[in-house]
């Protein structure tokens, strides 16, 4: 798919602000600094739509992007940033729970991981959390350009094993540097949308 139109509809902090349009939504989740904004910008052919590296201290919001009038991509604030206060962490948890647990329009989630490293405890918890809500997940193993081609299968295997990836879920190797995996990621998103 080509994102001819991509527009930030709202940065929401509360449920009342979620868009009322009844369009399928795909959420994008991942640890801070994993490359989530770069992933979104690459998918949407934009340099700076999703701001890279949203630092704590700034309000952390759910950003709803309307794509070609048919689909909503929802950028979920990154988890696992060490310097976040307890209060902020709790607010994040509540926001995520409301959105991931209760949003009818939500069709599935792309969980972005760094292909170089085994998923952290927080990544595993996030995956289990998504499965608890019975959401289909596509793992985006990004920064693939940082691992030599012949070592990539080993890294993918490690990701699958550490997460305990369910058989209905898949892994897409991705790179925002080279654009590798972009078509495949869109294919996976479209399948989530059609479910
Ligand atoms: P976010 O905090 O998850 O939104 O992460 P960003 O998109 O801001 O990326 C964090 C850092 O990783 C930045 O310095 C990016 O340039 C870098 N980065 C993101 N994706 C890739 C990738 O696919 N390959 C490489 N080599 N670097 C990447």
Automatic annotation (TrEMBL):
GO BP: any one term: division septum assembly
UniProt GO molecular function: GTP binding; metal ion binding
Highest taxon, organism lineage: Bacteria
Entry's Gene Ontology cellular component terms: cytosol
Residue ranges of every copy of the EngB-type G domain listed in the record: 22-195
Cofactor dependency: Mg(2+)
Function: Necessary for normal cell division and for the maintenance of normal septation.
Similarity annotation: Belongs to the TRAFAC class TrmE-Era-EngA-EngB-Septin-like GTPase superfamily. EngB GTPase family.
Record's protein name: Probable GTP-binding protein EngB
């Amino acid at each position: 798919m080509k994102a001819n139109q991509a527009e930030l509809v709202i940065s929401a902090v509360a449920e009342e602000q979620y868009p009322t349009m009844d369009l399928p939504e795909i959420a994008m989740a991942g640890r801070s600094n994993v490359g989530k904004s770069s992933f979104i910008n690459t998918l949407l052919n934009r340099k700076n739509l999703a701001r890279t590296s949203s630092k704590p201290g700034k309000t952390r919001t759910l950003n709803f992007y309307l794509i070609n009038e048919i689909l909503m991509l929802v950028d979920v604030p990154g988890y696992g940033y060490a310097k976040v206060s307890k209060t902020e962490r709790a607010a994040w948890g509540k926001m995520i729970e409301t959105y991931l647990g209760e949003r009818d329009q939500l069709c599935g989630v792309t969980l972005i991981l760094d292909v170089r490293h085994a998923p952290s405890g927080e990544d595993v918890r996030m995956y289990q959390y998504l499965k608890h809500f019975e959401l289909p997940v596509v793992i985006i193993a990004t920064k693939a350009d940082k691992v030599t081609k012949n070592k990539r299968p080993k890294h993918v295997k490690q990701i699958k094993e550490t997460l305990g990836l369910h058989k209905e879920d898949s892994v897409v190797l991705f790179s925002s540097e080279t654009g590798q995996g972009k078509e495949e990621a869109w294919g996976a998103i479209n399948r989530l949308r059609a479910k």
